[in-house]
Amino acid sequence: MKAFDQETFENILSSKGVKIADYVQKRDAEDEDLILRPLEVNDHTKGYLELIFDDVETADNNERERVFEEYLSLQDTCPGTYYTIVVEDLNRNKIIASGTLIVEQKFIHEIALRGRIENMIVDQEHRRRKIGSVVLGLLTFLAEKLGCYKTTLNCTDDVALFCEKMKYMHEAGQNFMLCHVTPTVINPDHENTSRL
Ligand SMILES: CC(C)(COP(=O)(O)OP(=O)(O)OC[C@H]1O[C@@H](n2cnc3c(N)ncnc32)[C@H](O)[C@@H]1OP(=O)(O)O)[C@@H](O)C(=O)NCCC(=O)NCCS
């Protein structure tokens, strides 16, 4: 299986009988210069990191770009796992929205696939224009087409309504539990353990 690129993106959708153009319909004139596509390695030059992180003013951005490239190349080693979609404003060469589907293979469900949505974000200037709906809708659709038996996402209270409108519901009796840990070396043979 190949890493997630444009061809794979289109193949996944079209092999199931759906074309992107059928799914993402143009909604108004303002959308004409917006395209949906997989994340690419030079997207850090188009504002992807500024979109995802809110500390670009103070962060070491050169180091972050290096990590970004490493992160993408690591994804090539586990194809079929990470699916990041971005929306690019072609007029401004700027990434204005993004979301990632991570596909996990569940041992306890006979290696069935379970989807998780991460890093769902729309640039402040472009919110409430249904761009988030398109990205989350497409990732959810992609998860379904890949065969995920369920897809989940974590969100804060202030965006719960958005998630509910996208059919992600709070499940009675289920809680999102969190344990903050200080990173420690887990595998001393792994060269990147300092960031684990
Ligand atoms: C949450 C977020 C992705 C929504 O993106 P968006 O493009 O503004 O959302 P849309 O325009 O597609 O909104 C779809 C619907 O949700 C509603 N909605 C969007 N954000 C909302 C919010 N914060 N509170 C309540 N409703 C909201 C919209 O009004 C719209 O309702 P409608 O269909 O009845 O008109 C965006 O606000 C964002 O990036 N937030 C910060 C990052 C974040 O919290 N990510 C986690 C999200 S899972």
UniProtKB/TrEMBL annotation:
Q: Which family does it belong to?
A: Belongs to the acetyltransferase family. GNA1 subfamily.
Statement: the UniProt record of this protein carries the keyword Nucleotide-binding: no
Q: Which domain of life is it from?
A: Eukaryota
The record's annotation in Gene3D superfamilies points to:
3.40.630.30
**SUPFAM superfamilies listed in its UniProt record:** Acyl-CoA N-acyltransferases (Nat)
Supply the name of the protein. Glucosamine 6-phosphate N-acetyltransferase
Recorded hits in CDD domains, A to Z, give: NAT_SF
UniProt domain N-acetyltransferase: residue ranges = 63-158
Organism lineage: Eukaryota, Metazoa, Cnidaria, Hydrozoa, Hydroidolina
Which keywords does UniProt give here? Acyltransferase, Transferase
EC number of this enzyme: 2.3.1.4
